[in-house]
Design goal:
Radius of gyration: 30 Å
Helix content: 10-25%
Number of strands: 42
Strand content: 35-45%
Shape: globular
């Protein structure tokens, strides 16, 4: 029932060994995969010994102990007692004296994993070989529940470590961790595992870290993992090792058993073939808390706190399936086996045009996001076609050079196969003038940003943060009025002290993201509504230490459309034109971003009025009554009447009145 294999070697050539325990070692079954791993800090020797005890205990008691037999027969158990052998045996292979926290590259392995907040390399180091082996192991399995073990404290640390906000399953985590700690208290002295909240703590509430394995497993692998600290003393006397095993023995087993509870089952197609399927608890999930089936077997395992849940099963190419009012009880399992119907397929097509001129856009890229369908490009007439798209709801992305990227949701079905898109021209700041004169940039902080000639995303130049010291910052910002909704995209490169010195990006004073550590050029993308906006990038350092190149770079910024793109004082508008509105129909869901934008053109300064009428010809709203300069302009409507109430679904008309004469009107449709 046990096999021991090497998943690879450490830097110095020591094997990283994993014991697999199962009643069918060679078969992949409808069973949760569980993982214990120890001692990624090489000097925390207690965990190595505890997991060796656990392996022996399971093997010695299989077949004679009902609890152990149940675990082995119904789970795939993986145990890696030592994940940093170079740190543990830094003093030689025959002793743990001289053991060190770090691997042989002097890197803390528990700060070296990709981080949900601080990016792929939050500590500024390349991924270490030991961590790459662990990430590969997780990728090769469908792990459901795990724990990484430490010593140096006595507490159960549950996620998140990197974020202050709680997980979707915080109540479940607290219950599971209290169960472990409360059981320990029945078998241990009164002063063991009794600090914090009676032996448990939220990671961030204790102290925040970046690059920890716990957050990596939860966020990127969607495997529930907590950090288990077993002893205040990292290197216990030999006489204390057996007692500590006895303190934790029953709790080790209880934690493993948690993977058997909640909701589980197998998802297949109508031919009983397993499907790769996403399982979503409706109105519950947060930060990648959804789980997926093991595509080889089709089994899924979703642990949940007691309650009533609605569950959605979704798989590309199949109609979504929802199970409502599923009751989950503590320590119980609900089995839901699901068969999915294959969805119908349709060819979709459309035209991509310039929203200002109505000209077709050649070489625009149209992409159905999160599908295996390759992006397509438009021809010289702006036409595109995507073949064999399955019926369903998708996000579609439309982009073209010098145009603002457009992302929206579409519903493909027998009645909806044609989707036309308008893109707004945008302005690009690529710093290729070799200075900051192309746009009205502002600078503040201790040192101004500068033009860099050694690092760029494209071309020869980029902007680089100022050469600041400890407790200083360098800011660059710009004020722009965007006439239409759109997206600001930019490329950012970062080289800072991970977890301490940060690059922050703000829109209108609200922080949208921050980055720390080492990150090569990556595109960032944010939605922007019409209006006056301030965009600001800030690099700020804490009170000590500098790592990397101690700066950040900014390049190829695509600003949202302003409505004045590609126009100048020499442009002559020879006609009055009501161009139209977008989107039409306007699907009103109550969000603040739901509005339609009406575009129009004036040949000269004029008195302009826009009125909205219902199907009965009754005026329900005046959108505009003002003197407007010649040029391209827009006005938006949020689907509300003059009293501020949401209008009913149906057909409406908007009328353009120029110098008190009605010049044109068009129809729009409101949907709810």
């Amino acid at each position: 029932i046990c096999s021991v294999t090497s998943i690879g070697q450490s830097i110095e050539g020591r094997e990283l060994l994993v014991a697999k325990i199962s009643d069918n070692l060679s078969l992949e079954e409808d069973e949760p995969e569980f993982f214990y791993t120890g001692q990624m800090h090489g000097d925390e020797v207690v965990t190595y010994i505890m997991l060796l005890h656990l392996i022996d205990y399971i093997l010695d008691n299989y077949g004679s102990n009902d609890r152990i037999t149940n675990l082995v027969n119904n789970m795939e158990i993986y145990i890696n007692p030592l994940s940093n052998p170079d740190g543990t045996y830094a003093g030689g292979n025959s002793t743990v004296w001289g053991a060190t926290r770090y691997n042989s590259n002097s890197v803390d392995l528990n700060r070296n994993f990709p981080d949900p907040e601080d990016g792929p390399h939050p500590d500024g180091n390349d991924w270490q070989p030991e961590n790459i082996l662990m990430m590969d192991f997780a990728n090769d399995h469908s792990l459901v529940l795990s724990s990484n073990l430490h010593s140096g404290a006595e507490v159960l640390n549950y996620p998140w470590d990197t974020w202050e906000h709680l997980t979707a399953d915080d109540l479940w985590w607290q219950d599971v961790c209290h169960t472990y700690a409360d059981t320990v208290h029945l078998h241990a002295p009164a002063d063991y595992l009794n600090e914090f909240n009676n032996g448990i703590t939220n990671g961030y509430a204790w102290y925040s870290i970046s690059g920890g394995r716990q957050d990596y497993m939860n966020f990127f692998q969607r495997c529930r993992e907590m950090t288990l600290e077993l002893s205040d003393v990292k290197l216990l006397p030999e006489s204390e090792l057996q007692p500590h095993w006895e303190y934790n023995r029953q709790s080790f087993l209880l934690y493993m058993e948690e993977s058997l509870f909640g909701i589980r089952g197998i998802v297949t197609d109508m031919s009983a073939q397993p499907l790769a399927t996403k399982i979503t608890i409706i109105d519950h999930e947060l930060d990648n808390s959804e789980v997926f089936t093991d595509p080889d077997v089709g089994d899924y395992h979703r642990m949940l706190a007691p309650g009533t849940y609605d569950i959605e099963f979704s798989s590309y190419g199949y109609n979504s399936h929802i199970e409502n009012n599923i009751q989950v009880s503590d320590g119980e399992v609900v089995t839901l086996n699901i068969q999915m119907d294959e969805a119908a397929q349709y060819d979709i097509s459309g035209v991509v045009t310039n929203a200002f001129t109505s000209d077709s856009i050649e070489n625009a890229v149209v992409e159905l996001l999160d599908t295996p369908i390759e992006p397509v490009t438009t021809n010289s007439n702006g036409e595109y076609e995507i073949l064999d798209a399955y019926e369903g709801n998708y996000e579609i992305k439309v982009s073209a050079e010098n145009f603002s990227t457009f992302i929206t949701e579409i519903s493909i079905n027998g009645q909806n196969t044609i989707f036309d898109f308008e893109l707004y021209e945008c302005e690009i700041e690529d710093f290729e003038t070799g200075d900051f004169t192309s746009f009205p940039w502002s600078f503040s902080g201790d040192f101004d940003w500068i033009i860099d000639t050694d690092n760029s995303y494209e071309g020869e130049y980029s902007a680089r943060s100022g050469n600041i010291g400890d407790n200083q910052n360098s800011e660059i910002s710009i004020d722009l009025e965007t006439t239409f909704e759109g997206r600001i995209t930019f490329y950012l490169k970062v080289s800072t002290e991970a977890g301490y010195d940060f690059v922050n990006f703000y829109i209108d004073g609200e922080e949208k993201a921050n980055w720390s550590g080492v990150m090569d050029w990556q595109m960032q993308d944010y939605f922007v509504q019409p209006g006056l906006h301030n965009f600001k990038w800030v690099y700020e350092k804490d009170q000590s230490v500098s790592n990397g190149e101690d700066c950040c770079w900014l390049d190829y910024i695509s600003f949202p459309p302003t409505g004045e793109v590609n126009t100048s004082e020499n442009d002559i508008f020879t006609d009055v034109k009501l161009i139209g509105n977008y989107p039409n129909p306007l699907e009103f869901t109550g969000k603040s971003s739901n509005y339609t934008t009406i575009k129009y053109q004036l040949a000269q300064e004029s008195s302009v009025k826009f009125h909205i009428y219902n199907i009965k010809g009754q005026k329900i709203k005046t959108l505009l009554n003002d003197e407007i300069q010649a040029g391209l302009h827009s006005v938006s409507w949020n689907g509300k009447n003059s009293n501020g109430n949401i209008v009913s679904s149906g057909i409406y008309f908007y009328e353009m009145v120029i110098n008190d004469k009605t010049r044109d009107s068009k129809k729009l449709l409101i949907l709810k």
